[in-house]
Design goal:
Distance between the termini of chain A: 41 Å
Subunit structure (chains A, B): Homodimer.
Number of strands of chain A: 14
Oligomer: homodimer
Pathway (chains A, B): Amino-acid biosynthesis; L-methionine biosynthesis via de novo pathway; O-succinyl-L-homoserine from L-homoserine: step 1/1
Subcellular location (chains A, B): Cytoplasm
Function (chains A, B): Transfers a succinyl group from succinyl-CoA to L-homoserine, forming succinyl-L-homoserine.
Helix content of chain A: 25-40%
Strand order of the largest sheet of chain A: 1-4-8-5-11-12-13-14
Largest sheet of chain A: 8 strands, mixed
EC number (chains A, B): 2.3.1.46
Strand content of chain A: 15-25%
């Protein structure tokens, strides 16, 4: 029996592909001669194209933000709880766009795509891309969709960095930036975790310098470790303690290297699942985009206030108290720089036991403040 | 030119080996038929053997706690700043013993030792050992050295767990337990980090199910990753930020997967160095000993107060505020259980930017409280 589509779902969506032939100059100095961006849209663009909202994804995200791909689809989009008819980001009001970023592995041009110059997957030849490059490519997608100015650019974590970058790269094209569980730049500890994850992939004998596609193998071991490690940093110590504690997988200790504790079983499962569908080169690229993000860097002593002086948007910044990956203090750095520039900013410091992952969870307080802010955006549109 | 020996050094020390032929029954149900323990001693045992202090090592530690092995030795023992003539643990007053635990790779019987039954390294046949097993083996070493009762058993991190275990396993044989930067049991997050480290080793193609010795290889990749990851958890976010921040290795970004940030270079160096001398099987065993440690487990609902009801020692418990691996709250759990039992306890909550590693660092406040507590122990001896 086919599963029904809930009333508050955007329903069945079909991903679309936009092909771009104009070369894209990248931060690294390289150029992408041409590329595809895969995207999905939900809701209807109004006559003056003033109700468009761009959703930027985080490390392992993609264009499938809400709804299902077919009636039997058991998996809904990654932010389906937030986006749909009557939901905080209400598709009865807004035209919502999700895309897969360059370098991704869900349809947009990335390392596993065929390089037209060689007829082989890009692999190691795919250039490093930055948050700025993504925002540049997203601006081209905006042109293609006839959106001169986004009502809002919205993202959590690495997605929040893109929203922040939009406000600086294209100040005229964004009315609101919604920056959730994010940071103005990574800390040494953040970079350190990313580097361990990358080293796990880069030193996997099946990595073959990034050209594993031609060898018929995948660096599963490395990607699995990277995901296991990442997962620890997405959850809070307390949240993990509440959910797993020291629960045993079996009644008694086995005194072996097999799984003993539930938390081990959970992490290994998450690692195995992820390694089965995600591309290791994409994982490397996404972590590098995180590391390099530092819009204040070229201003005196990394002055974020000066970097944001260009911005004209209004801002909604939210952080979760148990998030130790991008703790509330990191969001407050953003808020301070916005206040320094007398830019309108609403800041929410939200209680949650879910750590960094809280930005993906349905939580009454979080959803209430999101809804209130989106209502405000809609009043300006309507 | 040979390096001089400082006045406050214990000088040149020679490791000694104690061989035991009496089988040791292990927590796992296995038995070690016979084994060696390698140890070092500093200072002189007094006539009534009342001034003996046992130093228990942590994950990657060993018997070489203080001094040098030869005049040109550039590396001093791992706690040389704490132990020596006039130092907080004063070898003019105390007879100090350091040993390498069973399962180690510095001379005590471990996975890389020759299994007398097969003539080959134990490898995968070496049994899992627990903190309790270590304490049992340390008690036998005490007998051998003629020490009926330790003036103190001292340790940081996993070493602190051994001090705590001594107070429960052999309440009559320990007057003081000095438990630094430790915890009564691992949290789910602690176990999770350990499991990622283990999975890195276990899935390294060079691991060969633990019997890599016969294959002429070493699971260097896995051990390197494990150490890199461990290192992140030993340092504090702030301390790492102060030391490395976003400092670049080169003037400009290379936009590649090479080292960009100093923190990456530092971690990879630490990983490479460690993987060059430490045994991967020992690393696995030490992390399992951490995971299994939970002396309260067999009491009603994991009641630590009931577990410590057997103890008779006086306690010194210390924690460091930036230690997020074993945060001060974990030490306070121990303190609470001791207070519940009306056992004498001194607790120090020490400010430090060095995270978990602070217990190995020379810090005025930390050394002052250690010195004061050791002075008190000495007054009882003298």
């Amino acid at each position: 029996m086919s599963q029904s589509i809930e009333n508050d779902s955007v329903g069945i969506v079909v991903p679309q592909v936009a092909h771009f032939d104009e070369p894209l100059a990248l931060t690294s100095g390289n150029t992408l001669a041409n590329y595809d961006l895969v995207y999905e849209t939900y809701g209807k663009l109004n006559s003056d194209a003033s109700n468009a909202i761009l959703i930027c994804h985080a490390l392992s995200g993609h264009q499938h933000v809400a709804g299902k791909h077919h009636a039997d689809d058991k998996q809904v989009g990654w932010w389906d709880n937030m986006i749909g008819p009557g939901k905080p980001i209400d598709t009865n009001r807004f035209f919502v766009v999700g895309l897969n970023n360059l370098g991704g592995c869900h349809g947009s041009t990335g390392p596993s795509s065929i390089n037209p110059e060689t007829g082989l997957p890009y692999g190691s030849r795919f250039p490093v891309v930055t948050v700025k490059d993504w925002v540049d490519s997203q601006a081209r997608l905006s042109d293609r969709l006839g959106i001169t100015q986004w009502a809002a650019v919205v993202g959590g974590s690495l997605g929040g960095m893109q929203a922040l970058m939009w406000s600086m790269s294209f100040p005229e094209r964004i009315r609101h930036a919604v920056v959730i569980a994010s940071a103005p730049k990574l800390s040494a500890q953040n970079i350190a975790f990313n580097d361990v994850a990358r080293q796990a992939i880069l030193t996997d004998p099946d990595f073959h310098n990034g050209d594993y596609y031609q060898h018929g193998v995948v660096p599963t071991r490395g990607l699995r470790l990277a995901r296991m490690l990442g997962h620890i940093t997405y959850l809070s110590d307390d949240g993990m303690g509440e959910k797993f504690g020291r629960l045993l997988r079996n009644e008694k200790f086995k005194y072996s290297f097999d799984v003993e504790f539930e938390i081990e079983s959970y992490l290994r499962y998450q690692g195995d699942k992820f390694a089965g569908y995600f591309d290791a080169n994409t994982y490397l690229l996404m972590t590098k985009a995180l590391d390099y993000f530092d819009p204040a860097r070229r201003f005196g002593e990394g002055n974020l206030s000066r970097a944001l002086a260009r911005a004209k948007a209004s801002f909604f910044v939210a952080a979760f108290d148990s998030d130790w990956r991008f703790a509330p203090d990191r969001s407050r750095e953003i808020v301070k720089a916005l206040v320094d520039n007398r830019l309108p900013v609403t800041y929410a410091d939200i209680e949650s036991a879910h750590g960094h992952d809280a930005f993906l969870m349905k939580d009454p307080q979080y959803f209430a403040v999101m809804r209130r802010y989106m209502d405000r955006i809609y009043r300006e549109v309507a």
